[in-house]
Design brief:
Strand content: 15-25%
Radius of gyration: 27 Å
Structural class: alpha+beta
Helix content: 10-25%
Number of helices: 2
Low-confidence stretches: 44-74
Length: 181
């Protein structure tokens, strides 16, 4: 097949040109194409319906969160409290530092690093591996899945003495909930 240099087809008059070659911020499937400017005198120049009109000199303020208007953080806190109540039935392993956190309870294993997090039910886990370094204070826990993927997380301990305590707590949780196939 021959490859032509240049474009022999011209874009249609009313159709905007799409693609990264014309709009460097365009990523197919993630971002929408740039909006085409409206023709002069059209009705589309009015404010969008979902935009609130701004008044000059008046700062926009949100109503305080109250019983009839809950804040955005309240549902997450309630969900965490419900998880804590449910997890209180059996052994629970929890370790955290300033960036990372791992929780293992009857529901499974939850890993969190900064803003990223993942959850594994017990039937999704093939193995859980722990590793403590010879020197240093970073305790590594790796969750292996049946499809040969692994998810390591490092928790920085305040002291190396915590490694044995964490290992014993995690073993108790694994003995209670993890079933080897």
């Amino acid at each position: 097949m021959e490859q032509r240099i240049g474009s022999s087809s011209k874009p249609l008059e009313g159709e905007p040109v799409k693609g990264a070659g014309f709009d460097p911020a365009f990523i197919p499937g993630i971002t929408a194409p740039a909006a085409v400017p409206a023709q002069a005198g059209s009705e589309d120049e009015a404010e969008p319906q979902d935009a609130a009109p701004a008044t000059a000199g008046e700062p926009e303020s949100e109503a305080p969160a109250g019983p009839d208007r809950p804040s955005d953080e309240a549902p997450a806190d309630e969900a965490e409290q419900a998880d804590d109540e449910d997890a209180a039935d059996g052994p629970v392993f929890e370790a955290a530092d300033r960036r990372a956190r791992i929780v293992a309870d009857r529901k499974g294993v939850r890993l969190r690093l900064d803003e990223e997090s993942c959850e594994f039910r017990w039937d999704e886990i093939a193995a859980v591996e722990t590793e403590s370094p010879r020197f240093g204070k970073r305790f590594t826990i790796t969750v292996h899945t049946p499809d040969r993927r692994w998810y390591p997380i490092e928790i920085e301990a305040a002291a190396r003495a915590r490694f044995q305590e964490w290992d014993e707590q995690l073993d108790a949780v694994l003995d209670a909930y993890f079933e080897e196939a």
